[in-house]
Design a protein that fits this description.
Blueprint: E1 2-3, E2 12-28, H1 31-43, H2 48-72, E3 76-88, E4 91-105
Parallel strand pairs: 1-3
Antiparallel strand pairs: 2-4, 3-4
Length: 107
Protein backbone atom coordinates (compact mmCIF):
# COMPACT_ATOMS: atom_id res chain seq x y z
CA UNK A 1 0.00 0.00 0.00
CA UNK A 2 1.36 3.39 -1.00
CA UNK A 3 0.61 5.98 1.71
CA UNK A 4 1.38 9.63 0.97
CA UNK A 5 0.45 13.05 2.34
CA UNK A 6 0.34 14.52 -1.15
CA UNK A 7 -2.69 14.58 -3.46
CA UNK A 8 -0.86 12.54 -6.11
CA UNK A 9 1.62 9.67 -6.15
CA UNK A 10 4.70 10.60 -8.20
CA UNK A 11 5.07 8.26 -11.19
CA UNK A 12 1.47 7.01 -10.92
CA UNK A 13 -1.92 8.18 -12.06
CA UNK A 14 -5.10 7.82 -10.09
CA UNK A 15 -7.53 5.57 -11.93
CA UNK A 16 -10.30 5.47 -9.35
CA UNK A 17 -11.14 7.30 -6.13
CA UNK A 18 -12.65 4.83 -3.66
CA UNK A 19 -13.48 7.13 -0.77
CA UNK A 20 -12.34 8.38 2.60
CA UNK A 21 -10.68 5.87 4.91
CA UNK A 22 -9.73 6.26 8.53
CA UNK A 23 -8.25 4.46 11.47
CA UNK A 24 -8.16 5.49 15.10
CA UNK A 25 -7.17 4.36 18.54
CA UNK A 26 -7.44 5.76 22.05
CA UNK A 27 -4.45 5.19 24.31
CA UNK A 28 -3.54 5.83 27.94
CA UNK A 29 -0.53 4.91 30.03
CA UNK A 30 -0.90 2.92 33.21
CA UNK A 31 -0.49 4.60 36.59
CA UNK A 32 3.15 3.52 37.09
CA UNK A 33 4.29 5.12 33.86
CA UNK A 34 2.15 8.19 34.62
CA UNK A 35 4.07 8.65 37.89
CA UNK A 36 7.39 8.40 36.00
CA UNK A 37 6.15 10.92 33.45
CA UNK A 38 5.09 13.28 36.25
CA UNK A 39 8.55 13.10 37.80
CA UNK A 40 10.12 13.84 34.42
CA UNK A 41 8.00 16.98 34.14
CA UNK A 42 9.64 18.27 37.31
CA UNK A 43 13.22 17.82 36.07
CA UNK A 44 12.49 18.58 32.40
CA UNK A 45 13.35 16.71 29.25
CA UNK A 46 11.51 14.35 26.96
CA UNK A 47 8.67 12.33 28.47
CA UNK A 48 9.65 9.07 26.76
CA UNK A 49 6.65 7.15 28.10
CA UNK A 50 4.28 9.45 26.20
CA UNK A 51 6.49 9.62 23.11
CA UNK A 52 6.39 5.83 22.95
CA UNK A 53 2.63 5.73 23.57
CA UNK A 54 1.88 8.21 20.78
CA UNK A 55 4.26 6.53 18.35
CA UNK A 56 2.54 3.18 18.93
CA UNK A 57 -0.88 4.82 18.61
CA UNK A 58 0.02 6.46 15.26
CA UNK A 59 1.24 3.12 13.90
CA UNK A 60 -1.97 1.38 15.01
CA UNK A 61 -4.21 4.11 13.57
CA UNK A 62 -2.34 3.95 10.26
CA UNK A 63 -2.57 0.14 10.19
CA UNK A 64 -6.35 0.35 10.68
CA UNK A 65 -6.66 2.99 7.94
CA UNK A 66 -4.69 0.77 5.52
CA UNK A 67 -6.92 -2.22 6.39
CA UNK A 68 -10.01 -0.18 5.55
CA UNK A 69 -8.46 0.90 2.22
CA UNK A 70 -7.55 -2.69 1.35
CA UNK A 71 -11.17 -3.76 1.92
CA UNK A 72 -12.19 -1.17 -0.70
CA UNK A 73 -9.66 -2.54 -3.20
CA UNK A 74 -7.27 0.41 -2.97
CA UNK A 75 -3.55 0.17 -3.61
CA UNK A 76 -2.77 3.69 -2.36
CA UNK A 77 -3.97 6.33 0.09
CA UNK A 78 -3.45 10.00 -0.74
CA UNK A 79 -3.85 13.18 1.31
CA UNK A 80 -3.11 11.31 4.55
CA UNK A 81 -3.42 13.35 7.73
CA UNK A 82 -3.03 12.61 11.42
CA UNK A 83 -4.82 14.31 14.25
CA UNK A 84 -4.90 13.85 17.99
CA UNK A 85 -7.24 14.90 20.75
CA UNK A 86 -7.62 14.34 24.47
CA UNK A 87 -10.65 12.23 25.29
CA UNK A 88 -10.01 12.24 29.03
CA UNK A 89 -7.16 13.01 31.42
CA UNK A 90 -4.00 11.20 30.23
CA UNK A 91 -5.79 9.50 27.31
CA UNK A 92 -5.44 10.56 23.69
CA UNK A 93 -7.15 9.59 20.47
CA UNK A 94 -5.03 9.39 17.34
CA UNK A 95 -6.90 9.50 14.03
CA UNK A 96 -5.32 8.79 10.65
CA UNK A 97 -7.38 9.55 7.56
CA UNK A 98 -6.99 9.95 3.83
CA UNK A 99 -8.49 9.13 0.44
CA UNK A 100 -8.30 5.54 -0.79
CA UNK A 101 -7.46 5.32 -4.50
CA UNK A 102 -6.45 2.82 -7.11
CA UNK A 103 -3.33 3.90 -9.03
CA UNK A 104 -1.34 2.54 -11.92
CA UNK A 105 2.10 3.49 -13.20
CA UNK A 106 2.05 6.54 -15.49
CA UNK A 107 3.04 5.78 -19.04
Amino acid sequence: MIVVTTSEVPGYRIIKVLGIVKGNTVRAKHIGKDILAGLRQIVGGEIKEYTEMLSEARAEAERRMVEEAEKLGANAIVNVRYTTSNVMTNAAEILAYGTAVFVEPAS
